[in-house]
């Protein structure tokens, strides 16, 4: 199968299988029509069908690197998205690459191999027969930073720099309050609290209580976090547990509640409430309302996640709330709300709502909401907002071009990456990713497919939790530091090679890609030349000094071979004239972070 391929190894790698047919005068259609089609094709304005009519049914796109204008090692991760926008949309041609017969490309598949890096790939090519067969020589691409997680790399790959000037923004607390007003989370300045409460009483009806101004001599908490668990009754959702904590996470209130109406569903998988827990409970909603009002005055800042649901179930009206579902907006914008579990893992590095446990823990959830709020206050109003530093969304822009996009990944990644009209296809394993990405790639309706194989990075994360393994890997990592000074590393290599009688030294400095001033040229499989000004020290060390090669355990080798096999299988599933891009990110970042 002939395909148009590109592989990126962050130390990154581009290569193509490109075949371009010449003009075929015997192609179908009248000579007059064919002449017009040729004119359009040669002017770069022809359609996909025009190219096939002119060049024949075996016509192929052809890619070449223009490294004379932009050296390959100066390409950034985000430049890949510019190539995709040019191929599938209306963006300008990137200076570092050119695609001949571009309209023939019907599909782009972008794959991220979280955990693989250039040093490992170069040191053990025997573990990657599939990648070697499908692709060619690596091409260096600038990384974001050495400890970034794979989802940040994914965000960079799926974004492109914006040329729009952002509007002037207010700063500090004023901007924060202004943003809340836009989301209707604060009271209008023009209305007094008394007027609003009067209208609310009419709207709410009987049963709802209002927090009161603090009485002289009574002590109330300035800020407290609330979380409730609920069950389904004949009259709807009712509270079965209420928990409150202070700013230090100390429990202020934690009580089980007997619903007024018969329970139809305990919702145990979410609430953790079982019939046994409520058997001897006599506490009513009125009881916990009194407890709540003893702790919270009208001046208290009440913290929680989706507090509207909790306060509605408690039948309490309170106007000073900090809702983490709003101060940490969902990447896709309203009406979507981020899950507390995702926010906790992303910003607090804390796992809550463990699915292996029976239901949620309302104290745990209240503490998470409080800590997220304190983090927001400490870091400022812009903390936790969807980052604008990376630019605009690639998939959103492709959607505006009328291109259908499918993102195949795990749930956590999809929450962060899916924008606009893109389809989110959730997977639980890399095998699932392979199966669903292959299916999407074969669909005529889909123009862009994103897939991320993450089992290798998950393996690294698990291994990093072992202190012995961390110590061993850290020592090896220190031994394989990338050279920043070509002369210094060359001197060390020459000393070591002389001592160990290694006789594979280049005949002259011009043959050594790490020599001062070297400008080595690597030829791709299609005959295009890819210039590299330097080669990383890890490449040189791994080649010259076998004792410094990365140690590959049996478990790691198994993971690497599976990654390689999955990429090769996805490659085979692609239709003709597909652009296939594979990026690796930064390698074992779990070790570096540890």
UniProtKB/TrEMBL annotation:
UniProt xrefs under SUPFAM superfamilies: Ribonuclease H-like
Cellular location(s): Nucleus
Superkingdom in the source lineage: Eukaryota
A Gene Ontology molecular function term of the record: nucleic acid binding
Keywords: Exonuclease, Hydrolase, Nuclease, Nucleus
InterPro entries: REX1-like_exo, REXO1/3/4-like, Ribonucl_H, RNaseH-like_sf, RNaseH_sf
Gene3D superfamilies: Ribonuclease H-like superfamily/Ribonuclease H (3.30.420.10)
GO terms for cellular component: nucleus
Domain Exonuclease: 222-382
Family, per entry: Belongs to the REXO1/REXO3 family.
Protein name in the entry: Exonuclease domain-containing protein
Species per Swiss-Prot/TrEMBL record: Chara braunii (Braun's stonewort)
């Amino acid at each position: 199968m002939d395909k148009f391929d590109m592989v990126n190894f962050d130390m990154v790698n581009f290569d193509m299988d490109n075949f371009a047919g010449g003009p075929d005068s015997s192609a179908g259609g009248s000579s007059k029509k064919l002449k017009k089609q040729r004119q359009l094709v040669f002017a770069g304005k022809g359609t996909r069908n025009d190219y096939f009519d002119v060049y024949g049914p075996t016509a192929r796109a052809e890619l070449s690197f223009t490294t004379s204008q932009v050296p390959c090692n100066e390409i950034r991760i985000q430049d890949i998205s510019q190539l995709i926008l040019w191929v599938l949309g209306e963006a300008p041609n990137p200076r570092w690459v050119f695609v001949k017969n571009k309209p023939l490309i019907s599909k782009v598949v972008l794959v991220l191999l979280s955990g693989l890096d250039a040093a490992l790939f170069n040191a053990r090519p025997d573990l990657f027969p599939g990648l070697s067969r499908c692709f060619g020589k690596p091409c260096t691409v600038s990384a974001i930073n050495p400890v970034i997680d794979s989802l940040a790399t994914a965000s960079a790959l799926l974004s492109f720099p914006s040329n729009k000037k952002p509007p002037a923004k207010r700063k500090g607390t004023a901007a924060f309050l202004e943003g809340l007003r836009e989301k209707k989370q604060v009271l209008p300045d023009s209305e007094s609290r008394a007027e609003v409460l009067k209208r609310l009483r009419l709207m709410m009806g009987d049963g709802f209580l209002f927090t009161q101004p603090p009485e002289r001599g009574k002590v109330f908490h300035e800020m407290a976090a609330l979380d409730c668990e609920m069950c389904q009754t004949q009259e709807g959702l009712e509270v079965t547990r209420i928990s409150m904590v202070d700013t230090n996470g100390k429990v202020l209130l934690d009580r089980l509640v007997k619903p007024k109406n018969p329970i139809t569903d305990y919702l145990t998988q979410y609430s953790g409430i079982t019939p046994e827990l409520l058997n001897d409970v006599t506490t009513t909603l009125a009881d916990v309302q009194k407890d709540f009002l003893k702790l919270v005055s009208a001046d208290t800042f009440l913290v929680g996640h989706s507090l509207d649901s909790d306060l509605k179930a408690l039948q309490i009206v309170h106007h000073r709330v900090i809702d983490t579902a709003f101060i940490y907006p969902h990447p896709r914008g309203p009406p979507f709300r981020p899950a507390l579990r995702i926010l906790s893992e992303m910003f607090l590095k804390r796992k809550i709502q463990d699915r292996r446990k029976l239901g949620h823990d309302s104290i745990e959830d209240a503490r998470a909401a409080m800590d997220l709020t304190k983090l927001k206050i400490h870091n400022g109003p812009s903390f936790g907002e969807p980052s604008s530093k990376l630019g605009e969304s690639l998939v959103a822009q492709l959607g505006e071009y009328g291109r259908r996009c499918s993102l195949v990944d795990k749930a956590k990644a999809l929450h962060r990456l899916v924008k606009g009209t893109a389809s989110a296809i959730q997977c639980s394993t890399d095998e699932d990713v392979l199966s669903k990405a292959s299916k999407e790639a074969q669909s005529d309706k889909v123009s862009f497919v994103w897939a991320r194989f993450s089992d290798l990075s998950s393996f690294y994360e698990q291994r990093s939790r072992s202190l012995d393994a961390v110590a061993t890997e850290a020592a090896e990592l220190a031994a394989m530091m990338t050279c920043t000074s070509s002369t210094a590393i060359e001197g060390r290599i020459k000393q070591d090679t002389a001592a160990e009688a290694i006789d594979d030294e280049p005949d002259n400095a011009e043959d050594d890609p790490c020599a001062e001033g070297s400008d080595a040229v690597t030829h791709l499989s299609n005959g295009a030349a890819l210039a590299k000004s330097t080669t990383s020290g890890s490449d040189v060390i791994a080649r010259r000094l076998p004792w410094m090669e990365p140690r590959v355990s049996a478990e790691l080798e198994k993971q690497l071979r599976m990654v390689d096999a999955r990429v090769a299988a996805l490659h085979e599933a692609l239709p003709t004239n597909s652009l296939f891009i594979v990026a690796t990110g930064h390698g074992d970042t779990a070790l570096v972070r540890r």
